[in-house]
Queue: 2 jobs
Job 1
Amino acid sequence: MPELRQDQVTGWWVVVAKERAKRPDDFIRRGRAAPPTCPFEYGHESMTPPETLAFRPDNSAANTPGWIVRVVPNKFPAFTPENHAEVVDGLYRRRTAYGVHEVVVHGPEHDLSLATYPDEQVAEVLRAYKLRYEYHKRQPYTRYVQIIINHGKEAGASLEHSHSQLFAIPLIPELPKIQLKGAADYFYQNNRCIYCDIIASEIAEGARMIDQSEHFIAFVPYAAKLPFETWITPLQHKSQFETISDSERIDLASMLRRTLKRFYNGLDNPPYNMYLHTSPPGYDLTDAYHWHMSITPKLTIQAGFEMGTGMTINVTIPEDSAKFLRGVQHIEHGN
Amino acid sequence: MPELRQDQVTGWWVVVAKERAKRPDDFIRRGRAAPPTCPFEYGHESMTPPETLAFRPDNSAANTPGWIVRVVPNKFPAFTPENHAEVVDGLYRRRTAYGVHEVVVHGPEHDLSLATYPDEQVAEVLRAYKLRYEYHKRQPYTRYVQIIINHGKEAGASLEHSHSQLFAIPLIPELPKIQLKGAADYFYQNNRCIYCDIIASEIAEGARMIDQSEHFIAFVPYAAKLPFETWITPLQHKSQFETISDSERIDLASMLRRTLKRFYNGLDNPPYNMYLHTSPPGYDLTDAYHWHMSITPKLTIQAGFEMGTGMTINVTIPEDSAKFLRGVQHIEHGN
């Protein structure tokens, strides 16, 4: 059963989940072999744990073909709902990694991804995000929900079929905590959302803008941590992703798909990571926080300097990254 | 010229160093081609900037063959001593990335590394660390010195010839700051060094121990962030690495080489990252902080969950990692 262990000096928690690997000496051959057949295709539904959500326009039975988006528990979970216990033993503090680890399968087609699906399919994936957020935030153990995408082997995907992962976990992790604290500090001092101020400033300046729609903007942050890091965030202040309306969701789907298509066309279908930051349940800084997606192609390696300092070295100027992504052609679907 | 940009929400700094890459569209072919000849071998001294330190038992001339360890400025520096300026422009704050970025070439032999060199050679590398620490800490701009090793392409090394990198930088980065604060908090509450307490506890428990010598221990931390993460730290309390005595340095060389040989033999010469954490100049928590090296083989990929949360998922139980590394055979030199 996975557990959480606390670093005695920093207070940061680590997930220890041996279920996700084999024995230590299996590292000599580095990593798990890919399964012979893809568990995320039609007809392979029994290869995954039973689904927790699926959109089935044809009213097909659960765990059979016919779905267009399917959510299942991760077969090798980093968090499990088995029990909830904490042990403090001298300097050592650990907890069960109580929570949920799910997979959102983006569609049945093995060779498509969010960059190449129609906008309508991406909108269904976002609907699954919203529904699972709403479900998990109501659970008593959930303090935080993290949705991510690892696309491509170099970005950490163990299966190539396009999917997201959702973690419902029993604590607010350190990086979101630092971000929430920064937003709260700014709000106390200025009585405004710092993200709203950044958005206004980015639109006025323009140099880091990539795209703008009715409800969203895509831009490269001023202090982008890595080349081509891109944020998508609502123009209007909103702290919680899951309050997204249907029309906003459809607009976001198009913005997300277009942004990923810029990566796909401009950077030759790169591996990438996405994470969604939104105000946590029970700790909603309604006026101070502003939800956003961060998407970063995996083009460089974080190494000793980053591990030792927490600072990243971005080898591309953010304004150059934005200019390059703005200029990518044929981002409309079907081009 | 590289610059530092501050994230407006978190306050964390990012290095923007376009000198270390080409134009954005060069990422399509992903990364720099390897140079045709290795700049770190005898006879190629003119391929690097002039040396800042070299050990030359034969009294050979600077920037010619004959050295046994050689320190040179990085040809593609992330920090440069060119000027020192800060600009605040509305929400945006940036500084020149003022500082020094050096390379410590571990020896002239292209096919050896710290795992396979004799202890005496490793001791000379550590002597270079000590001398460069002592030099850089005296410079008025230096607030922090980070020494790291990226070994192997997957661990971020752009040249395969064994080397370390040293960064003398004008601020204390966030991760060391969090660690220093944690150590200070523990000291205020307990009047003891937390690392000294951890060391005593690890020796008493034994389950995470790997090795012990006259002056040092090697162990897997309780909340190890990744598989086989190993710390080497002095048994006696000492906040600053650069105060190491000659006999301690020779003992450390053997411990470091043996530890890396455990990786080399047990995990098939894996890529790895090392970083050295020591009390910063001008901010020496003499009684509260305790210097240590962290060495981690690069066997897994940090992905969306880690980027979004700052939490890592360690797929190996720390006690299993330690047991495996303890059991590795033939770690003495010449075996």
Note: The CA atoms of residues 1 and 115 of chain B lie 36 Å apart.
Job 2
Amino acid sequence: MTAAKARKNKPASPNTRPTQPALPVPPVAAWPAGFASGAAAAGLKAPGRLDVAVLVADQAVPAAAMFTTNLVQAAPVLVSKEHLKKGRGLVRAVVVNAGNANACTGQQGLRDAREMCQQVARFVRCPIEQVLVASTGVIGRKMAMPKVRKGIAAALKSLGTTQDHFAAFSQAICTTDRWRKVASSTLTLAGGPVQITGTTKGAGMISPNMATTLAFLATDAKLGAAALKQSLQQAIAASYNRAMVDGHQSTNDFAVLLASGSSGVKVSGTAAHDEFESALSTVCLDLASQIVRDGEGATKRMEIVVTGAKSDQIADGIARTIAMSALVRTAIFGNDPNWGRIVSAVGYAPGVKDIRKLRCKIQDVLVYRDGTPTDFNAADLSNAMKSEQVLIEVELGEGHGEGFLQASDLTYEYVRINAEYTT
Amino acid sequence: MTAAKARKNKPASPNTRPTQPALPVPPVAAWPAGFASGAAAAGLKAPGRLDVAVLVADQAVPAAAMFTTNLVQAAPVLVSKEHLKKGRGLVRAVVVNAGNANACTGQQGLRDAREMCQQVARFVRCPIEQVLVASTGVIGRKMAMPKVRKGIAAALKSLGTTQDHFAAFSQAICTTDRWRKVASSTLTLAGGPVQITGTTKGAGMISPNMATTLAFLATDAKLGAAALKQSLQQAIAASYNRAMVDGHQSTNDFAVLLASGSSGVKVSGTAAHDEFESALSTVCLDLASQIVRDGEGATKRMEIVVTGAKSDQIADGIARTIAMSALVRTAIFGNDPNWGRIVSAVGYAPGVKDIRKLRCKIQDVLVYRDGTPTDFNAADLSNAMKSEQVLIEVELGEGHGEGFLQASDLTYEYVRINAEYTT
């Protein structure tokens, strides 16, 4: 999927975000037919907060997953990879906890991750390799397994298919998130309507490289594991891998897509697959946008669009270089139309060879071309930047390469959260 | 020069830094014999603040310079490159202003930069190509040439060789710096003592790639332009290119080294060149450390030492990846021994293939080995981190590659400075 397509798939109104840390009510959604979920408060987060959850399919179903590319991989990542391979892409359940990443925990961590799968496998009566596991939270702390065991048991006991069950699942996976994140889409294929629903978590250690953070996606459409894998890879490439909070790649990234087939509608033929992939991308882009909007301390979401580069890869590199600049990110926070920081970031982005035709726009206002600034009105533009979404466009004039990335601004609150967070 | 050598060259006590924004009195220093300087308040910065300066050699002397590798290059960078080439490495004077970068200013910017050189050339009676020019400040604003002309005239009128003249020069080049930055070294060669003295400016848009920020270095030793170039490149590689405030590469970086030969002491033979290069590196590392300590909003200087990588290049990449992580930088600000953020940054650094033997130390305390944390005392270590200098060591156990980088922490004050700075 191209950047242009990715943008096209952008949710219609990403401008609505609460300024208070209260949890807004997300659009009504429940898991598609064929799935149940449960959640419990195991005491891994603050007392009483949901922190363990299970997603269970009525039977073993085709699934695809993507994992962090960080070389430091948490135990649940290693175990889920192993299970997915052994189970040949058939998955019955996913168990997840927040509050402890089970990363850098050695052999004991692997044993704990396997035990979590085993407990679910016993309950739903399936082979252990049909259970995947995901964790998020502090790195390097042993899992409090007595709590985890009780939590999983309670979550399994609470299994159900209502909106409340879905909401509890999406709440349980949160860490520093200010609100739970869900998205859903219904598309009508030749055989009838199918649903795609997902939930994800933020809000820090977010960098675009192959399934950032945790994402749980489910559909009642009928697809094989191979088709699911292709669709998931395309959707993640167009969404999660173009979303950035702080540019730090996590050890626990995990995205999974399960297809129950309960709708009875088979996704067959190129057109149907394209439609499915497009709807999945929309859901993923919605979720990724929510992560960026709720990025740690974020007050705004930057949309960085690069065109006219020699290749898509170079365009993506430029977008990332701009998004990674602390000077750009603080300027956006300060409503400062500081195009000099943007233009100079392009000047050291990898692969850029010629910036003589460089043009830069902020909020649709041309601010730079022909090596000099335009005589735009800085006060007006600063006012226009007092928005929850700031559009930065860079045109290289060198070719047809396009890139897109969305990123959070850098604020006092980001520093507070991450300087006061104690290991 | 290897990273280990660079560390060896580190100034002895970099721990003393003021917490107040007052300007501490730097060690007594003046330009070496053969140089005079002058400074003036032209009104480019706040009224009354020194912002234009000239450094003039008694005659045209051999010089070497390095420039930003950013593709977006300010007019003074382009003009100085041109002059250095035309003048075949002979330089009579350098003119510099702060308060306006003269970057992204098109043909007018080039004309202004040339005019600045011309004015100095006329005064000291030398060809224009023997005058270099450097600027620092806001990007994309036309130079207020009437003010600049008056400023240069006043600076030239004030030329002198005292400590006060040197101090005024080092003050004039500052922008957001909290104190002026100077360093000096005297070494005794076979022919007698020679002096190397330098001054530099911070405090933002600092990223290690080939002469970051502005640096003016002068010696009374006798060397040719080729030898100066080699020494400067080595010294910058070991110092400035291993110093980072915010990872944003500037459009105006410029480092120059002038050799008056006034001591009458010729640097000849490998041993003498090595000694000279080592002393120059010490001066540059001292200056670079001051930039990091005075990084925008910085409360601390991180020293990141990487050993045991497959190559020096990979080790450097690891050090940069750690230094670029906003999560690591905020943890250091918060005295948080959050080794998980350091270890996970190693996991996505370019070229790293195997992290199974990874060991990590913070302030000499081993916190991670064999894929798991040690049982170090977090409270004690946090206390040990309440220092102006925090040492992070990473050992890969894969080879003999070494890397070193020093970087500022990320604080509320950085966000304030850069969100409130208005273009």
Note: Chain B touches chain A through 66 residues (CB under 8 Å).
